[in-house]
Design goal:
alpha+beta, Phosphatase 2c, domain 1, 5-stranded antiparallel β-sheet
Length: 319
Amino acid sequence: MQTTFQGLFHTLIGASHLNSGTVCQDSSDFQATEHYAIAVVADGHGSKKHFRSDVGSRLAVEAAVAAVSQYYTDPELFEETICEDPERVIRNIEKNIIARWDQAVHTHFREHPFTPEEQRPFTETEFAKLKLEAVYGTTLIIGVIGSCFTFGMQIGDGSLVIIEEDAMADMPIEDDETAPANVTASLCNSYAIDMFRSFFLPDKALAVFVSTDGLYTSFRSTDDFLDYHSIIASRLEKPEAFDRIVKRNLEKRTHFGTQDDISLSCAWDVEIMRNSLDALRQQVERNKMLAPLREAEHKARLQRQHEQRMRLIGEETQQ
C-alpha cells in the first residue's frame, strides 16, 4: 500500500557555543520513500576527549539512514520480518548502525589524521590513552514510520515523541538506566549495543519527533514538553508555515533556554494527519485546560521538596 510521508529537520547551534566559539556538535536528517519515513538526530559529546564529536554525530546520522534503507531493500520481506520479531530485527539494525559508524570513523581518521592543534590540549600520555572512537563520541535517536507500524531506537540522552492516531503524545522509550554511573551511553562505547533502548508499535503513528537534549531541557516538565509536540503537530497541515514556526521557536530556545545546540527531526503520515486534525486541536485545548492544575501541582511539589530539605537541615543541626 502506497503511503505519503512528509517531514523536516533542523539543527541550530546553541548560544553558549556561539559565545565560546565552539562548533555545533548536533546533526539531524529526514528521509522518506513510499514505504517508510525516518527522522534522526545525534548529539556529539562536549568534553575535551570527544574533540571530533561534531563529525561523529554527522557520521551517526548517515549510518542510521543507510542502515534503515538497507533493511528496506525488500519492503515486503522487511515488514513481515519485523512484525514477527521486532526485538530481534531492531537489534540487528542497531548492530548495523554501530558497524557502519565504526567504519566511517576509521575512514575519516585515515583521511584526516589528528592535527597538532587537536593534540595540543593533551599531554603525550593523555593523548596516547585516547580511544579513537571516543574522539568521535555521540548519541543517536531514530524514529521510523512504516506502512503499518512505528519503531525507534536510542542510545544516550535526548527524546523521542510519537503522536498517535488519537492525537495523544507519548514518549515510548523509557529514561536511560542502561549506563553505569559516570559512563555516558554513546556509540563510542565498546558495549554500545547493550546501551540501546527501543520500542515497536504495531500501528502507524501520526507523527514521530526526535530531538537532542537541548530541546527537552528547555522545558520545565515532561508534560510541558509533550504539550509542545501536540501544539506543533496541530499545525502540520501547512508544511512550509510549520517549518518556519518550528525553526523560529527552536532559535528562541537555543538563546533563552539552555543555550545548548538543538536538533529536531520529525516525520508524519499525511493521510492520518488530515484525518486527525480535529482531534489534535481538541487535545491542544484539553492541555490548556489542564495547565493551571499542573502549575499548582508543580508549585506544591517544590514546596514539599523545600520543606523536606529544611527538615533535613534541622535534623543535622540538632545532631
